[in-house]
Design brief:
This protein is an alpha+beta fold. The chain has 24 helices and 20 strands. 46% of the residues lie in helices and 15% in strands. Strands 1, 2, 3, 4, 5, 6, 7, 8, 9, 10 and 11 form an eleven-stranded antiparallel beta sheet that branches. Strands 13-12-18-19-20-17-16 form a seven-stranded antiparallel beta sheet. It has a two-stranded antiparallel ribbon with strand order 14-15. Bound molecules: arginine (ARG) and aspartic acid.
Length: 707
């Protein structure tokens, strides 16, 4: 008997080791994983990763904007992130005359660095388990709504207390494991962030949407910013007198490069994962939501592309919008395919059956079935929400009209605010694209959403105009929002004009319908689901513990929620399909193989061709004499991890994370160690580009290199 038990324990330990690359761990609890990290090659300790007593790697990692990660690489506030994370900023500084997207941008001195309104970076000061504070006053007999109120008011108070001494402090309370635990995160947020450099899109977005989410990859996806602070090194609004921020910690750069099997660690802000979803939730995403959203976006992308090909001006204006529509569109395709291939729904169902048998007679009895029926109730409403979000909510004119309208309804009209909003909107707007999308999206809505979910306003419009294109024509030609001059001439007394505008009425009618008829149903069911998931999560942990002992428990990591996490793994190729094996790294040679002046996504700068021909690589080449470009590894990452530092076993920077492979994008829901790989940019390609392609080698003087 004893032997059998040891064997089971060994088998579990072995399989734990095999799958241990899955997971996004909380840095403040990393001491629980550090042994495993060290066993896999890491040479530093837990305090080097996260400490509140000394400078640690966490002080060199920032939340960049509200959806990317960045890292500090010099004592003077120099920061690296992805090109696609700085894309909005680079685009906003671009025009047909200075096309920084096309040609790249490099500040040759500090005076040339460009400020970016609205951009912030946040340093995590500390994080802390605050479950008892947040649930103070809770009793089991409270309803879910009462509990939510309590959590909200306790959080509010805690946030106020922890940010009381000001100076850019910002705090959030986040729920982990569906509210089984709460953590407080305190950030210091800087808002004077200047653009230092970006390669041309032909490097930074090389491969474009064709190669996006794919391996082999050759994208030089990086951009560089600098954080500025007041004289006291504290956050300060933009001012010419601000000085470069002096970080507590910045990364030392290693030029050693990577080999298959090497340890790597990603430190960043993953946005959202749903690893503990019930099979019914997975089924909805993979079989219904993803396919419908993909189809709607295919139509929008087609319309955008058609106009973008007609003019350079429209191409610039819609480049950022187009990239973001295309990005999720392609990811969902990989995700749906991956879930199918992994049979996630049936695997989860089998688990749920086992769980249910185990749960018989316990407080978890019937839970799995209950979640399933909640999903059944929710489904028609989720479907309507998906359609609303991907159709009516994507009409740019209507969104802008609603924004202007809000200024009036909130009683906050301000001429300068109006001018600012208008400049923001019209800079990148092209009405014919929007109008064609309007007609196409409304048509899809009418055809695919059951009539029960057609707002009265929609039914009336169709009966008045007969069809969507006549409706679109009328709406776009009668709205004042297609005419910038009229919008900018609006005054304090313009409310009536705005509220009676057809674009405003469109947005307002849909959003009222959603708020009255859809959202309350969703909110009710979601609350019940939340409660059920909170139990289910605890149940799964108890189940694991009773079946697999303590090791079973170790596999639970909280779903990503845009808080700082550690993921670790190793450099590894993979086999995407029978008969195909992928190497784990790519090089400049591959860029030359793809180079094609005829194809927009693959047309590299002439300078890169010349350097390749002359082999003038400086010290940036790898052992094989080639310039390394990208590499893949088994780290568990998601959206938000873009721009994250890729760290080697000595704690030095070897790359910048920017993507995942297509066959592995289901990792937000289910991680398959055979297919899930993160894609990183080799730091040597970054330095080579700065030094040889951009001629901005002066920036290297600020950086520190490992021997
Ligand atoms: N797929 C990456 C991420 O999710 C990069 C996206 C930007 N690139 C693009 N071609 N759209 O953010
Ligand atoms: N490209 C993603 C990002 O922007 C990263 C990912 O989804 O793997 O965060």
């Amino acid at each position: 008997m004893k032997r059998i038990i040891t064997t089971i324990a060994l088998a579990i330990a072995a399989s734990a080791a095999l799958h241990a690359d899955e997971g996004m761990w909380l840095p403040s609890l990393i001491s629980q994983r550090i042994q495993d990290m060290q066993d896999k090659g890491f040479r530093l300790n837990a305090e080097d990763i996260y400490s509140i007593n000394q400078a640690s790697l966490k002080d060199a990692v920032v939340l960049f904007g509200r959806g990317c990660t960045g890292e500090l690489i010099s004592p003077e506030g120099l920061l690296l992130t992805n090109h696609h994370c700085g894309y909005g900023q680079i685009q906003q500084h671009s025009s047909v005359e200075h096309d920084y997207l096309k040609d790249g941008f490099w500040a040759m001195n500090r005076d040339e660095e460009l400020p970016n309104k609205g951009l912030t970076v946040s340093f995590l000061e500390r994080m802390e388990d605050v479950t008892t504070i947040i649930l103070n006053g809770y009793s089991e007999c409270m309803s879910e709504a009462q509990r939510a109120e309590l959590v909200k008011s306790n959080s509010k108070k805690l946030i106020e207390d922890s940010t009381a001494d000001g100076q850019g402090l910002r705090a959030t309370v986040e729920s982990l494991y569906y509210g089984n635990q709460y953590f407080l995160f305190i950030y210091r947020e800087y808002s004077d962030i200047r653009l230092v450099g970006a390669p041309p899109s032909a490097v930074g977005k090389f491969g474009g949407d064709t190669d996006n989410w794919m391996w082999p990859r050759h994208t030089g996806d990086f951009s560089m910013f600098r954080i500025y602070a007041g004289k006291d090194n504290m956050p300060a609004p933009y001012s010419k007198d601000n000085i470069p921020y002096k970080p507590k910690k910045y990364f030392t750069i290693s030029l050693k490069g990577v080999e298959e099997g090497d340890f790597t660690f990603i430190y960043g802000f993953p946005g959202r994962t749903q690893e503990y979803l019930h099979s019914s939730g997975v089924r909805y995403i993979g079989e219904i939501s993803d396919p419908h959203k993909i189809r709607l976006r295919t139509i929008r992308l087609g319309i955008q592309k058609k106009y973008m090909q007609q003019s350079q001006d429209i191409r610039i204006r819609y480049s950022s919008k187009n990239a973001s529509v295309a990005n999720a569109w392609k990811k969902w395709q990989g995700e749906a395919k991956g879930l199918r291939k992994m049979n996630t729904v049936s695997t989860k169902r089998r688990f749920e059956e086992k769980f249910s048998r185990w749960a018989c007679g316990s407080r978890y009895e019937g839970l799995v079935g209950r979640i399933d029926s909640l999903y059944r109730e929710l489904e028609p409403y989720s479907y309507a929400t998906d359609y609303y979000a991907e159709t009516a909510r994507t009409i740019e004119l209507a969104n802008f009209a609603a924004k202007v309208g809000r200024m009036y309804s909130d009683g906050k009209f301000s001429k300068s605010r109006l001018e600012e909003m208008s400049a923001d909107f019209y800079r990148d707007y092209y009405a014919p694209i929007d109008m064609e999308c309007f007609a196409a999206m409304m048509d899809e809505y009418l055809r695919n959403v059951p009539e029960q979910f057609h707002p009265d306003y929609l039914k009336n419009s169709i009966s008045v105009y007969g069809n969507v294109s006549v409706w679109a024509d009328s709406l776009f030609s009668n709205s004042i929002f297609t005419r910038r001059g009229i919008v900018e001439a609006l005054e304090e007394d313009g409310a009536e004009q705005v509220f009676s505008d057809p674009a405003y009425i469109f947005a307002d009618s849909f959003s009222k319908w959603y708020a009255d008829e859809i959202w309350p149903r969703i909110a009710d069911t979601e609350r019940e689901l939340q409660l059920a998931y909170r139990d289910y999560m605890r149940g799964m942990m108890e189940y694991e513990e009773s079946v697999n002992g303590k090791q079973g428990l170790e596999k639970f990591y909280p779903d990503a929620n845009l808080t700082l996490r550690v993921a670790y793994g190793n450099i590894s190729g993979y086999s995407p399909a029978d008969g195909v094996i992928y190497e784990p790294s790519s090089s400049l040679k591959g860029i030359m193989e793809k180079d094609n002046p005829e194809i927009f996504d693959y047309n590299i700068p002439q300078r890169l061709r010349d350097i390749y021909a002359s082999k003038d690589y400086g010290k940036w080449a790898g052992k094989d004499g080639e310039i390394p470009v990208c590499f893949i590894a088994t780290n568990h990452t998601t959206g938000g991890n873009s721009g994250s530092p890729v760290i080697n076993s000595d704690g030095n920077l070897i790359g910048i994370n920017f993507d995942r492979v297509w066959e592995g994008t289901m990792s937000d829901i289910a991680f398959d160690p055979d297919f899930c790989r993160n894609i990183a940019l080799d730091i040597r390609y970054v330095l080579f580009t700065i030094d040889k392609v951009a001629g901005a080698g002066h920036l290297l003087d600020e950086m520190s290199f490992a021997e």
